[in-house]
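Final report, Chapter 2: Outcomes

The project's central promise was a pipeline that accepts a single protein chain and returns its three-dimensional structure in a standardized token representation, suitable for archiving and comparison. That pipeline is now operational. To close this chapter, we reproduce one record exactly as it appears in the project archive, with the input sequence first and the structure output second.
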Amino acid sequence: MNPPVRVLYLAGSGRSGSTLVTTVLGQYDGVFAAGELRYLWQRGELENRPCGCGRPLRDCPLWREVRRDLPTDRAAAIAAGLRGRLRMRGLPALLRRHRRGRRPVPAHPDDAALTDLYAAVARHTGARVVVDSSKLPPYGALLGALPGIELRVLHLVRDPRATAFSWRRRRGLDGDTDPELMSRPPVWKAALLWLVWNTVTVRLWGGGAPESYLRVRYEDLTADPEATLRRIAGFAGVDADSGPFTGPATVRLVPTHSVAGNPSRHRTGPVPITADVQWRRDLSRWSYALVTGLTAPGLRRFGYPWRRGVPAPARPAGQPVEVWQSASAGQEEG
């Protein structure tokens, strides 16, 4: 009997650093940076969009081998089925099933294809850990119920004002020359998505065992990249000394074979890890106030100030999240 495939699932809201974390982790021994695998069937198989290595996915030698083990002739049906099963309107029922100890996302015949996907990726890459940055909590809940998968959830959180600003940037889906743009939701929608996805992530996994759930803030990652990535690597169960750091905040990246994600997944060579804080200067006062009001319940939970210009208090490396949250509560602005 084959051992289960360990999947490090990056959950939470978009624009929170998941592409950066996935790409860096993909440089560690025994780790495969798969990218947003829930999009394999649509963007990879049907649209043949670029792999992280730069080739169209169906022309990538690695994915050519993986695809031989998959029902690629059913890609359109599988992609449509996932869209239907993971809709936001299904969240209340998903959470009710979770509270009752039932499978959050009901079983479906396509689950066999998903199980085969992760098994094939592990088999053809030899990876001990597959990093999936799909982020969507319902998809993570679906994966956690599949046979042969050992799920560990890395919950990435970023200041909602920063994510709302980032979503409004005009970016090609796979780089500046791509005429198809990434989604650009208005700030109110980006704020609500941030609140919903992060809240659902906590509801599904936040009360679990420390070995199955870890929460990391983008702000702490960029403040101390090497220490934070070592912590994440340890949580994933890989050798933290095998990383790509050439300095405390610089990594040397080689191409990955990630599916979908931010176009920054194509970056290679020496890359500095720095905080993107343009939003502090350029996000309008109206947008700041709107996002702050809509996400107020999550700001306190995750340690973010309400007042503009006040940085989020840093969490000391190695300090448990719950202890840090309790200690930092008094530093937040009301």
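Archive annotation: The two ends are 55 Å apart (CA to CA).
This record, like all others produced under the grant, will remain available to the consortium after the project formally closes.
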